[in-house]
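A protein record pairs a chain with a discrete description of its three-dimensional fold. The following entry can be read in just this way:
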Amino acid sequence: MLSASEFTVGSIGKAIPLTLVLPRHEGEEAILIARCSCGPAALFLSENHRFQWFASAHNEHWHGLLVAGVRIEVDETSIFDPARLHAKLGTVVRQGTQLVAQAKPASNRSVNGFEPVVLEDGLAATTDEAAGFHRWRIVIGSGRDKRVLHEVSIAHS
């Protein structure tokens, strides 16, 4: 459950990175507002366009329930080494000072098909190594008040 002070309703063009957009009807999508080099980016979480993204600043087309201030948690039991195992679409990777989601631009302008979007930046720097995760979730609150709003699980084989 969300308290009324934990969300607004509107277009994704007004949403800042780490905002979860929840659909109000079948025509809307679950979206996570992340960050790309061009500013805020909408990362689709729903099945129709799952893990595709596009620049979302000033976008008035997509709307929903805007839950700002969400956090990302990774399932440490789903860890993998992206240097040894290809990071699949939808996985997250912690490298340097960032946590990024492996995503695909909706415009298909990427050469290899993937163009990661930044979920978190400014984290404590890591070495030259990275860690990927097949399972992650979007939460709000902390301690006893923490709630899971969305979960992602990518099959690995």
About this structure: Residues 4-68 form one domain.
